[in-house]
From TrEMBL:
It comes from the Eukaryota. Gene3D superfamilies: Medium-chain alcohol dehydrogenases, catalytic domain, NAD(P)-binding Rossmann-like Domain. One of its GO terms (cellular component) is stromule. Belongs to the zinc-containing alcohol dehydrogenase family. Quinone oxidoreductase subfamily. It holds the Pfam family ADH_N. It comes from Prunus persica (Peach). PANTHER family: NADPH-DEPENDENT ALKENAL/ONE OXIDOREDUCTASE, CHLOROPLASTIC (PTHR44573), NADPH-DEPENDENT ALKENAL_ONE OXIDOREDUCTASE, CHLOROPLASTIC (PTHR44573:SF1). One of its GO terms (molecular function) is zinc ion binding. Transmembrane segments: none annotated. This is Enoyl reductase (ER) domain-containing protein. The lineage of its organism: Eukaryota, Viridiplantae, Streptophyta, Embryophyta, Tracheophyta.
Length: 393
């Protein structure tokens, strides 16, 4: 059975108070409240590494509110932001050894449609390490690069044309509109990142920053893939790698947002209970069963592992196969997600109601200093849900 765990979302020592950047750029209020975190899924006990279970620790809520001030004070607030920050950087393509920690990286300049986010937590995705390995360098932005797509943090500055956000807002999102086409040189694995407001949404009120950081790219990929197939209420679905970052959200969205009649998913033996808890009607142990030999067929197969050649054997005539990685066999198709804050806003009610939950690997979150270890772990393809980096400091 899954156990609901309570986690300490942040500590006062982990976050550098933004008020220290100037005499008083804006207020930062800290309040300690005891609450049980019911929105972060803990994986089965058999999957957990040895770590203590905390039943009801105080969660640190951080809220920041803008203050009315003359223009001259507003200008001083902007100038009080640091010009340099800590960040992970790579100046050449390669393995994890090309990642370097730098304490003097320039804080990204803000465009008129962007907000500057003080990063509290970030998550890793396969696209991060594939990009670092040079898999799509022909369309990549020039090196050096601060990696990172997913972010959750606090807005500390807004561009002149920003309408939906203000300083102090807690936000989350995928900072790169196009994952493979000129992604930002300055990503989310840094103290600050600049993001177009259209790519962000307000963080769901019931989620902490770790949970929020785990969602954007994966949930947008899950949603867009289902939408592209024309998935709708009453249809059936098979998810390959249902315990992964995208797969775990495909199960939940299909069941609770799209109204699937039947959801099947594959995983290793130890993760079968997780699949059922997410809403899977049929949990398939790929170490013991060949899913392509199943007697039933599905309207859609969502291949999040790279087995399209097998997936097409269990799709109904006229059905669709979404392939996120590996070779594509017709009628399979591949797409690259487009970051869109509107999708996050649409899904926020499902997150706030608890119908859809973040799944976070039990080895994390990894501290900022352990980014290399986090990437090495992600690249084993053994992670359950998302690998999150927190705190960023």
């Amino acid at each position: 059975m899954l156990a609901t765990t309570s986690t300490l979302s942040s500590t006062a020592s982990q976050l550098t108070p933004l008020s220290s950047l100037s005499p008083n750029p804006f207020s930062v209020k800290f309040s300690f409240t005891f609450r049980e975190n019911k929105n972060r899924i803990a994986v089965p006990t058999s999957l957990k590494s040895q770590r203590c279970q905390l039943s009801a620790l105080p969660a640190l809520r951080v809220s920041a509110s803008s203050q009315s001030a003359p223009t001259s004070v507003e200008a001083s607030k902007v100038s009080a932001l640091p010009s340099e920050m800590k960040a992970w950087v790579y100046g050449e393509y390669g393995g994890v050894d090309v990642l370097k920690f730098d304490t003097k990286v320039a804080v990204p300049e803000l465009l008129e449609d962007q907000v500057l986010v003080k990063v509290v937590a970030a998550a890793l995705n396969p696209v991060d390490f594939k990009r670092r390995q040079g898999k799509f360098q022909n369309t990549d932005s020039p090196l050096p690069t601060v990696p990172g797509y997913d972010v959750a943090g606090v807005v500390v500055k807004v561009g002149s044309k920003v309408k939906d956000f203000k300083e102090g807002d807690e936000v989350y999102g995928d900072i790169n509109e196009k994952a493979l086409e000129g992604p930002k040189k300055s990503g989310s694995l840094a103290e600050y990142t600049a993001v177009e407001e259209r790519l962000l949404a307000l963080k769901p009120k019931n989620l902490d920053f770790v949970q929020a950081a785990a969602l954007p790219l994966a949930i947008e990929t899950a949603y867009e893939g289902l939408e592209r197939t024309g998935f709708s209420a009453g249809k059936s679905l098979l998810v390959l790698n249902g315990a992964g970052g995208v797969g775990s959200l495909v199960i939940q969205l299909a069941k609770h947002v799209f109204g699937a009649s039947r959801v099947a998913a594959t995983s290793s033996t130890g993760k079968l209970e997780l699949l059922k808890s997410l809403g899977a009607d049929l949990a398939i142990d790929y170490t013991k069963e060949n899913f392509e030999e199943l007697p039933e067929k599905f309207d859609v197969v969502y291949d999040a592992i790279g087995q399209c050649d097998k997936a097409v054997k269990v799709v109904k005539e006229g059905g669709s196969v979404v392939a996120l990685t590996g070779a594509v066999t017709p009628p399979g198709f591949r797409f690259v997600v487009t970051s869109n804050g509107a999708v996050l806003k649409k899904l926020n009610p499902y997150l706030e109601s608890g119908k859809v939950k973040a799944v976070i690997d039990p080895k994390g979150p990894f501290p900022f200093s352990k980014l290399v270890e986090a990437f090495s772990y992600l690249e084993t393809n053994r992670a359950t849900g998302k690998v999150v980096i927190h705190p960023i400091q």
